[in-house]
Every structure is written in structure tokens, then in C-alpha cells.
Amino acid sequence: MLSNHDASAQNRLDMTNARNATSIDVLNVKQFIYNGHEEWQRKERLVEIMSKDPVFDKSKREWMTRTEKYSRGLRMVNRIHELGQILGWSKQDTTVATSLLDDPLPVSLHATAFEPVFLLQASQELLDKYAGLIATRGIFGCYLQTELGHGSNVAALETTATYIPETKEFDIHSPTLTSSKWWIGALGKTATHGVVQAKLLLPGGEDMGPHLFLVQLRSTETHKMLPGIIAGDIGPKSFNGFAATDNGFARFTHVRIPKEQMLSRFAQVTDDGKYVQPPHAKISYGGMLYIRSGMVTTAGWVTAKAAVISIRYATVRRQGTKGADELEKQIISYPSLHTRLLPILARAYVFISLGRALSQSFQTMAQRLSSGDASLLAELHATTSGLKVLCTTASVQDMENARRSMGGHGYSAFSGVGRFYADLIPSVTYEGENFVLDQQAVRAALKAFHGLFGAEGRSRPSSSTIAKLTPSSYYLRHLSSPTNEPPILKGSDSSWNNVENLILLLEWRAALLVHEIAQTAQDPDATIYQRVSKGTTEAFVGRRIGEMIGGLRTNSGLNANDVAVLSRLYLLYLQTTVESALADLLSFGLLRIENPPRVGASRDPTRGLRMAIAQNCLSLAPEAIGLTDALGFSDWELDSALGVYDGNVYQALWDKAQTEPLNDKEVPDAYGESIKPMLSRGRMMAERQSGPKL
């Protein structure tokens, strides 16, 4: 860097030039990603209000204790509901405002777990009594499923709910230490009520498996625990994540609740203790599916924040080789950087769109469930299981890759990415540990396979049966006829830019993986469950991306250039997904190249794919700032010195460092306590060893 060069001015200039270089209409794309002009305006209006309100100030949070963060979190939620009353916000306004808070908060579980489970499963009698209170936050709820000894294995939960016909009550009890409810968000100090997952025991001792019960936990007057319940916070989490959330424990000692507090819209117990079966064995999974569908959207938006911060920093950071202007190059210009960061941006866009579609699918399923129609449950369970694994795994990896792309400054708390990572990383565990969910995705795939090809996997399906394949198993059609073959790719890069070619490769891979596990189920290899889960989910996503690209062309809010750029971004997702699948594609001989490389040229049959990725990233690099701006994050939302909108990152980082409380005193208290004694001792020892000092 030149000795008299003003780096801050250069930062701002580089960011301005990058904005001027983008060809997309940022507002058009912004409205597309927010699902319309009205939703974008709503979000912009709420950010304007909240960013100026001192209750939502973020400048001190890095130095708060956990207790202070918990109290701050509740102050913010309380303020949102105050503003809602003062300003006449709608329910959607309040929902969006709450989502703008980037601290995981205890009452968030009220809206994402307790409320949807209750509304979906409760009887009309319970709804009449509690739905209004739940909606207005007259009570705070939590969802008590996980136990100290069991998490993903819901069938093995130990908490019991024994029906007592004489009093028409259920006895809720924690019979062992390991039956203690554990990790429950909002249980520690906040919730007044909870939906408890417990084994239903009939009067004769018959175990009917896990069912849901509404239990009051604390007094609505004093907030003290009710008799027979012990509860508290389980303590700090790794990386100081979820600091504002009181993940809690609870033990029940024969707590009696009225019979009516069983969530009995579907499964029921009669007054005399007889069990009434639900219309579908897994109908109680509805609430869990709602949570998982929301996790896909969350993964998309958090990944988007990491992409925005890292790409903005890479745009203004100059390092390494000097150009003709004697300035070091912007690191976004290096292929090793933009080929890492642009796929992260692509995944953010795809996950946001997938999450929106998944939420719509859940609403459709919920409407049908309310009338006892469980026909969509299995399909949504299959897709949410696979997508939860795929999206959370990818987002955690992307978060770390984004942080590492920023060099040493990425490790600073002021980059913001570390905070997102700490709060995102448990998502691979909660609501179904990802390796366990892989098995659920595999079971769904095998069920579809055997439904199509019979128990032995050798039957020839009819055309009508093939036509009934659901989106999650659509790839299986490729196995329906021995004449079906995967696509033949040309030796040039053009085949790797063909969306349908890429989707077909992903579908063939999924089909052959499922066929493989069907034939070797009794002797599975080391990674087959993970490969099948990932392969089938990526085939599903690939087909959805094809539909997304088709939908772009009919979107009246986008111009032709916007469509072209977004199509290339979605193409990049497909290309990098296929690249990550090369081991399977090569294992099954799916890469059929029409014109193999000549002698003396590259012998790598996949070089064309990697060259296509390189070229696509190069073409998208000038659009990177426009595409990140279209995600619509304000500086208040990102709270990142390295992701500031104007690009003035070094000044922002300097200013943040000046707020460090350790800098309040020139000489720290530790000097007199520890530093001075050590220095004095060291000098005395040196004098004894080498004589008096000069």
C-alpha cells in the first residue's frame, strides 16, 4: 500500500465502484427475495423504528454477562409488544419485528414451538380457554420434549402421564434422573406453561407412547414454580451461544392436571380410561414439522448475513499482488476467494426460497390436518427431515468458510460472523440430530422405492404408479425402465451450464443410491445413510431449482437482466452441488462424456464442470455487491464492522475497538495485582544472576 494512501477513502471508493458495476435492479431483486413490495416496505419501516430505539441498541452487548443478556432480551420483546400497541401494528408486523432481533430469545420458542403445536393439537375446549391468552402473550409457553437421557429418540422418553379415571386427571411424573426435561428453551426462568411430551399410561399400565399435555409451570401472579415442579436454567452453552435464552430443566413429582389438558384433537382418552386412536400414527409430528420448515428459512437468512459481510469485506480489502495503480488487488478478484464466497451467496438465495415454499406447504398440510386429513404428512415429514439436515449442515460450514475468508479480522467479535456461528451451530442437533434424521430420510426413500418396485425391488411399476410419485421421490422414475439412461455430456463446458443436465445427474445419483441401499440393507457400508439422505434431498432441491428458474421468467417484477443474473446464481448452486457429488457420480458411472480429453490434454473428466464453475463465478463477481444489497440488511441488523454498507471497514473496526472496557484505564487494575509483582520478581532474579543493572 502506498505510504500516503488513505485506506478509508479507498474502501469507500471501492464499494461505490462495486455498486456502480452491478447490472441488476437491486430494488426489483430485493422485492423478489422479500416476496413482494409490501413485505419489503414493512421490513424497511420496522427497521427504521427499531434501529433508532435505545432498547434495541447493540453497542454494549459484547460485554454483557449472561444474566444481563437474558434481561436485555426480554426488555426488547416487551418493547416490541409496547410498540405494537402504540403504533397499531398488525400480527404480521409484530412477527417481522421479532424476527429482526438477532439474539435467540426465550419467547421466540413461544411462537415457533409452543403456539403452533398447541394450535395444531389442542381440543376445541382447550383452544377456547387458552388460544386467546397464547396469542396476546397473556401466558408464555415452552415445548418440553428433550430429556436429560434422551433427545432424538422420542419413543424412549421416560416422563409419564398416567391417567386416573377416579378423578379424571393425568399424573405427570419424572420417575428417574434421566427423565428430567432438559435443554427446553424458555423453561429456565420465563415460561408460565408448557406442552409436555410424556408417555401416556392407561389405568391398566398399558404404555401408549408419547403424547402431549398442557401443564402450568409457574404462578401467573408471582411467577413462582407450582408445587411438585423443580425447574431452572441448565447453564451456559458452547461458544456463549444462545446466551439470552434460558434453556432449562424440569422434574415433575406426581403433578396432577385435568383430563382436558391432554392435547386431544386427534388421540384421546375416554373418561373411563379407554384410548381412542388418532387417524394417523404420526399425526403429532405436525408441530415438529413446522419448526423444521422454519429452520430452513432461518438457515437461509443467517447464511445470507455471512455472505453479505464476507463479500463486502472482500470487496474493499486489498491484499497481495499489486496492480497497475500500485495498489494491492481487491481480494474479491482472486478466484480462490470468489469461488468460495459466491456459492455461499447462492445457497442463501436458494434456502430462503425453499423455506418460503416449505412454510406454504406446512400451512396447506395444517389446514388438512385440522379436518383429520393426514395425506400430506408423510411427504412433508420426508422433505423436512432431509432439508433440515442439508440446510443446517451447509449453513454451519458456510458460516465458518465466510469467517475464514476474512483472515484474522474474521475472528474478531466485531466481524459479527462469530456470533451468528455460535447461535447457528446447535441447529445441526436440535429438532432431530442430523445423523439421526439421515436415517429418517433413508426410511422414507426406501418406503417409496419398495412402494414402486415391490418388497424385493424387482417389480415393474405401471405408468399410473409412476405418475403418482411425490416430489420427494420423483427421481425414482429413472429406474422404471431398463431403457432409461443418464444424460450424455459433451466434452465442452456447455453441458455443465445446462440446468436440466445437472438436475438429471442429481436425480440419477439419488435413484442409484436408493437402489444400492435397498439391495445392501443387511450389510450397509460406512456412509450409505448419509449419502442417501444427502443425495435424495439434493435431487429434490435440484428439481425445485429448475422450477425456480422457470418461475423467474414469469415474474413481472424482474427485468430480463435480473432473471439472467439470478438464473446464473441458481445455476451455480447446481454446479457446486454436482461437484460435491462427484464421488457418487463416478462410483456409479454416471459421467458419460461424449468427447473425452485428447492425449496430452487434461485427463480429468470433471475438469469441464470445474471450469464452468470458475467461469460462472467470474461472471457473477461484478454482481456480488448488488446481490448482497438486494438481501436488504441494514448496518443495525448486521452489527458488523467488516460488513458496513459504505465499505469503511477499517475505521469501523478502529471505532469498535475503542469501546472495549479494558481500554477505559491506561493502567489496568491487573498491573498492581499481578503485572508489577511479576516484573519486580523478574528483575530481582535477573540482577542476582547477572549482577547489578546498568
From TrEMBL:
Sequence ranges assigned to domain Acyl-CoA oxidase C-terminal in this UniProt record: 499-679
Cofactor(s) demanded: FAD
Keyword Flavoprotein: yes
Keyword Nucleotide-binding: no
Subcellular location as annotated: Peroxisome
Main location: other
Domain Acyl-CoA oxidase C-alpha1: start-end pairs: 285-445
Alphabetized UniProt keyword annotations: FAD, Fatty acid metabolism, Flavoprotein, Lipid metabolism, Oxidoreductase, Peroxisome
Residue span(s) of domain Acyl-coenzyme A oxidase N-terminal: 29-135
Name of the featured protein: Acyl-coenzyme A oxidase
PANTHER family the UniProt entry points to: ELECTRON TRANSPORT OXIDOREDUCTASE, PEROXISOMAL ACYL-COENZYME A OXIDASE 1
Family per similarity comment: Belongs to the acyl-CoA oxidase family.
